[in-house]
User: Which sequence fits this backbone?
């Protein structure tokens, strides 16, 4: 547990000094909200459209910022150092928890901006918050798995991008279903099911990711 | 390739070989290194010295053969200094040592190690601002932090000044008291540390 916290703190400290991930995700979210606000000026977009836009924006914010947590280790040559000083499991969990934190910050900022500037009206607040947390968990888990699998590969960015399609697509579909229900255009039961699906994926990624990392990053 | 001398064993390489694509870098490398030994690996550029050290460190898998190391977590048993090993540019030297100690589960000894490698005055500077020589010193401090049984040094004096070379010498002296040292080098001066030599001719 202490090792996981150490990895988390390392990531956080590095991010606070470079601000690359937060800057990328924040700027993208802001641009997305501005674009949505302009596109829907004078109209009232349906809950389904807004749910889709929210999920797509979250998806791109995560894809742009998060795999970097893993892949940058390889690019700057520090992956070997990490393998020499640590077991893979705490590295994976620490980095995934850091990704989740960053995703939650981005998600909540984005959700508030959409309410403020794009006319998003939440009908079921608890479901909206739950869907946001679950979507962030699932996306953080999925991109962490992509990053962990692609690290060390010759064409790591291409591999991460290819892996992200089958891993992220179901999370987006479930996210849209959950947000639609929270915005009043679907049943609460259906929305809750989607939330449970997202949470299940997030927990599975966090639980099984360390096993994957241990076999992929094996030190002889 | 040749190896002179036989020793009480800390590390063994059995029929070790590595290929990239279809090209063998080396094959049939076998030796044993024991307590107090300093094995100097020699060879021209591209002969596979660094590859051999990466195999011994576990960072690279052998294409054939095996490496035998002492039991225990590799990150506490082994210290490695490589030219290709990078540091976190956004972290200070002190933070590197603290993080490494927490992950390894060993005492940090940050002050002692920083003083040992002559980085006390620069301990709180980001390593992105370090010179190549300063980075080499910090890598050495990280390698010896767990007081490993095996210390692997790839071109340890390549970017160091005279004071740095003296630090490497004292580290090697100290290491022979608790384990073994394997040095890959092109520098003829480094041969003076050798108790045994291995020449790889690729």
Assistant:
């Amino acid at each position: 547990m202490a090792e996981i916290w150490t990895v988390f703190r390392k990531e956080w400290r590095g991010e606070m000094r470079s601000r690359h991930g937060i800057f990328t995700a924040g700027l993208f979210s802001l641009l997305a909200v501005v674009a949505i606000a302009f596109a829907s000026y004078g109209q009232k977009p349906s809950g389904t459209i807004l749910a889709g836009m929210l999920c797509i924006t979250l998806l791109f914010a995560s894809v742009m910022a998060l795999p970097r947590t893993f892949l940058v280790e390889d690019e700057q040559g520090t992956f070997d150092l990490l393998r020499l000083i640590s077991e893979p499991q705490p590295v994976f969990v620490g980095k995934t928890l850091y990704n989740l934190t960053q995703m939650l910050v981005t998600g909540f900022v984005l959700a508030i901006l959409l309410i403020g500037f794009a006319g998003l009206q939440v009908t079921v607040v608890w479901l909206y918050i739950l869907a946001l947390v679950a979507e962030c968990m699932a996306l953080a888990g999925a991109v962490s798995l992509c990053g962990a699998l692609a690290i060390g590969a010759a064409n790591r960015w291409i591999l991460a991008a290819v892996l992200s399609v089958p891993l992220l697509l179901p999370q987006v579909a479930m996210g849209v279903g959950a947000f639609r229900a929270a915005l009043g255009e679907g049943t609460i039961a259906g929305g809750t099911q989607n939330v449970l699906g997202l949470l299940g994926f997030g927990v599975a990624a966090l639980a099984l990711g360390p096993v994957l990392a241990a076999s992929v990053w094996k030190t002889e | 390739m040749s190896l002179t001398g036989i020793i009480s064993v800390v590390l063994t390489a059995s029929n070790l070989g590595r290929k990239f694509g279809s090209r063998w870098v080396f094959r049939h490398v076998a030796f044993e290194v024991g307590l107090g030994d300093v094995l100097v690996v020699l060879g021209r550029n591209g002969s596979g010295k660094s590859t051999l050290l990466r195999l011994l460190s576990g960072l690279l898998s052998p294409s054939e053969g095996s490496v035998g190391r002492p039991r225990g977590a590799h990150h506490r048993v082994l210290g490695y200094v490589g030219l290709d090993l990078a540091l976190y540019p956004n972290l200070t030297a002190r933070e590197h040592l603290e993080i490494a100690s927490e992950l390894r589960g060993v005492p940090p000894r940050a002050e002692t190690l920083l003083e040992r490698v002559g980085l006390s005055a620069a301990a709180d500077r980001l390593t992105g601002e370090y010179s190549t020589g300063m980075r080499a010193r910090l890598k050495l401090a990280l390698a010896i932090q767990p007081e490993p049984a095996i210390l692997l040094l790839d071109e340890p004096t390549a970017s160091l000044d005279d004071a740095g070379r003296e630090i490497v010498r004292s580290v090697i002296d100290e290491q022979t008291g608790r384990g073994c040292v394997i040095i890959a080098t092109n520098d003829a001066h480094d041969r003076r540390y050798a108790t045994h030599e291995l020449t790889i001719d690729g």
